[in-house]
Amino acid sequence: GRVKMSAEEILVCAVELGKNFCLYFDELECDALCKEKTLHRVLRNVNSQLLVVRPDLNVAAFEDVTDQEMQSGKGMHFSIHCYKTTTPLAGMPVAFSVQVEDKSYYMCCERECGEMIVRFKEGEVPKEIPGESNIIFFKKTFTSCCSKAFKFEYSMERGMFLAFEEEGYLRKLILKKLSKDEVDETMKISL
Description:
There is one protein chain. The longest helix is centred in the first third of the chain and has 11 residues, at 21-31. The chain starts with 6 loop residues before the first helix and ends with a strand. The protein is built from 3 helices and 13 strands. The strands form 2 sheets. Strands 1, 4, 5, 6, 7, 8, 9, 10 and 13 form a 9-stranded antiparallel β-sheet that branches. A 4-stranded antiparallel β-sheet has the order 2-3-12-11, with no helix packed on it. The chain has helices at 7-16, 21-31, 67-72; strands spanning 32-41, 50-54, 59-63, 78-83, 92-100, 103-112, 115-122, 128-130, 137-143, 146-154, 160-167, 170-177, 189-190. Strand 4 (78-83) and strand 5 form a beta hairpin. It is found in: Cytoplasm; Secreted. This is Interleukin-18.
């Protein structure tokens, strides 16, 4: 499998560098994100459909889910990892992961053929994230009057939010640009 480097291992290397390590920790202090808590939730869209991740098909989409399917919970029970932030104005930094069978997958965004694609990759979410990361989204309330629903802005491209798009019968999870002062219901996610 792939070699995973955890934040701890990186820290150990940094200490061995000796003269460099002060600098490293200073930097870490400023803009590193440390995991604070993890919420366990299902993600619903405006149509009360649940977000379901199917890694075998490389797809994540909002679907009508029966109670029975919900109990088996394959690919729909998310962990929302909340990170501490020094800049609360941007929203709470979160990362998403989901269990499917006995594997954990995390959500990230990648540029492909000029557009941003939401992907789920096998692996764990790191406890600490130094600086920027393509797995971090800012959780914001959907509208000022509606505190129960949220929208999630991609941290590395402001103005891009998680949303769904109808593709045939699928309501696929995508990243979508919010045009100014618009309320876009496809970005509305309830936890």
